[in-house]
Amino acid sequence: MSLIISTVKKEKQRIDYMLEKYREILAGLPKGTISEKKVNGNTYCYLKYRDGKKVVSKYIGKNDVESIREQIEKRRHVEAMIQSLTEEQKLAKKVLEGKI
Questions:
Q1: Domain chopping of the chain, boundaries
Q2: Distance in angstroms (rounded) separating the CA atoms of residues 92 and 94
Q3: CA quadruple 60, 61, 66, 68: dihedral positive or negative?
Q4: Fewest Cβ atoms closer than 10 Å to its Cβ: which of 1, 14, 59, 61?
């Protein structure tokens, strides 16, 4: 039984490390969505996100739109990984506490 417990402990340490790294990555990525607005036949792109109760719109230059789009997609992936790892972390804690 101690082999299983030591394996779960190592896995929990790995999960904790990965969560920390993903949260660091997440802090550097933009949040929100890109919206387009047409004015006089020209299309302008804005990054829209919430800051508390307020919705913030920031203009994105034409050269930066694809880069921001990729970063937002990466953010969604990182958020999904954090959610998955958090669930695994809860399960590992339960095993280590003897609740399973």
A1: 2-97
A2: 5
A3: negative
A4: 1
Output phi, psi for 62, to 5 deg.
Answer: -55, -35
- Per DSSP, the three-state class of 38 is strand
Residue with tokens 């829209």: 48
CB 89 within 8 A of CB 19: yes
Separation of CA 55 from chain center: 20
Record the pTM: 0.81
Q: Residue ranges of the alpha helices (H) in 28-98?
A: 65-97
CB-based contact 23:100 (threshold 8 Å): no
Q: Exposed, middle or buried: residue 78 (CB in 10 Å: 0-12, 13-18, 19+)?
A: middle
Cα distance between residue 29 and residue 60, in whole Å = 15
Helix axes 65-97, 2-27, angle to 10 degrees: 150
Give the mean pLDDT of the chain.
94
